[in-house]
Structures are given as C-alpha cells and as structure tokens.
Amino acid sequence: MSTSNSPVPVRIDFVSDVSCPWCAVGLASLQQALTRLDGEVTAEIHFQPFELNPQMPPEGEDSTEHLVRKYGSSAQQVDANREAIRERGAALGFTFNMDRRTRVYNTFDAHRLLHWAELEGRHIALKQALLRAYFTDGEDVSAHDTLLRLAGEVRLDADRARQILSSDEFAEDVRAQEEFFMSRGIHSVPATIINGQHLISGGQPPEAFEQALRQIAAAA
C-alpha cells in the first residue's frame, strides 16, 4: 500500500495519434488524474505511435469528407461529434477550434520526431505542442517547417530535428512499435496501458484514470 512518503512508480504506455481528438482528451484526463495522485503515484509516460491514416497522402484530405467516407457518418453527425469533443476538451482546459482543423494529415514524421524527443526527455512537451498545433491552431502537422518550429519551441535541437526529418531515421523504430501494439490487440486509440497489463480504452474522464491508478498502486 502506498504511503505519503513513498509514491508507487507506474509505467504508462499511451498509444495514440496526434491527429486523434479523443487522444487529446484522454491525455488531458490522464494528466489531470496524475496531478490528483501527486505523492501517491509517480508515472513514467511513454508515447507509443499509432497512425489513424497510414495511407494518407502528403497533401492530406478535407477532414469532413474524410470522416464521412471513413465512418459512413453524415456531415451532421460529424458536426455533432465535433461539438461533443469540443465540450469535453473545454472541461479539461484543452481548446478544440474545429473550424480551423479543416484537413487530415499524415502523421508518420511527427511520430518519428516524438520517438527522438523521448530520448531527449522532451516528449511530453512536444506531444502537447503537436496536439495544440493541430487541434487548436489548425496547423499542418505533416509539414516539416511546422515540426521544426515546434521542436524549437520545446527546446529540442533544431539542427538535429532537421537532420532526422530529412532522413529515414527512427522510421524502423516507429513501425516496430506500431506493429507491436497492434499485435497486442490495440486497433483504436487512445489506449492507455499501465504496467504493461492494465488497459484503459478511449478518452475516459479523469476520475476513471484516477480510480484505476489508485487501485493498481494499492495492489503494488
């Protein structure tokens, strides 16, 4: 059982895509839960790559057309879902400007940059910057100019970031991680895996993460 002076260490693998709105909701919820558990749990967060649209061409695609085609939704259903997501985000302090997010982009290079950012200990800052750039500011998170600017904003080495983006560096690592989690049955995101064995699916509210983490910590 944890006590106030011995927080329980937990490993959290957060499988997600930077173009997934529920991933932004889920991450904000998880971080809020971890704030509530400060002193009880110390979390080591690892972002694991998942591409919602691995075949997306470089120019991207209109977001409404894409969602209507992919999920068989009507444009009205897409709008209703966006409003529900916007409200969930607002309650967690995350701003979705859905009118700015007009296109869906390929996110493979963003995942390569995140892989490197974790080696540098800046992955949480970069992940948050990428989610804000896409969902709040409507930026193209496949564009190397955007990725380089965001890397610089979170104090990553811009020259090293440019070197990575202009090569295939970390591509094999990202593909291997994607395949590993898909082989473990992860086919929708966000998927939050605690200590390699407890799965929390979807953009759950902070209370769900808090309860699960507290139970896992108590059993540790």
Note the topology.
Layout: E1 8-16, H1 21-36, E2 41-49, E3 61-62, H2 63-71, H3 75-91, E4 103-104, H4 108-119, H5 123-136, H6 144-153, H7 158-165, H8 171-183, E5 191-194, E6 198-201, H9 206-219
Parallel strand pairs: 1-2
Antiparallel strand pairs: 1-5, 3-4, 5-6
Helix pairs in contact: 1-9, 4-5, 5-6, 6-7
Textual characterization of the structure:
Helix 1 links the parallel strand 1 and strand 2. The strands form two sheets. The protein has a four-stranded mixed β-sheet with strand order 2-1-5-6. Strands 3-4 form a two-stranded antiparallel ribbon. Helix 5 packs across helix 6 and helix 6 packs antiparallel against helix 7. The protein contains nine helices and six strands, in the order E-H-E-E-H-H-E-H-H-H-H-H-E-E-H. The longest helix has 17 residues. It starts with 7 loop residues before the first strand and ends with a helix. The chain is of the alpha+beta class and 220 residues long. The protein has one domain: 3-Layer(aba) Sandwich (Glutaredoxin), CATH 3.40.30.
Q: What is the annotated CATH architecture?
A: 3-Layer(aba) Sandwich
Percent helix range: 40-55%
User: Any idea what the CATH superfamily is called?
Assistant: Glutaredoxin
Shape: globular
Radius of gyration over alpha carbons? Answer: 17 Å
Number of helices: 9
CATH top level class name: Alpha Beta
Report the portion of residues in β strands. Answer: 5-15%
Query: What is the third-level CATH name, the topology?
Result: Glutaredoxin
Strands side by side in the biggest sheet: 2-1-5-6
Biggest pleated-sheet summary = 4 strands, mixed
Number of strands: 6
Quickly count the domains.
1
Mean pLDDT: 95
Oligomeric state of the chains present here: single chain
Query: Which regions contain 5 or more consecutive residues with pLDDT less than 50?
Result: none
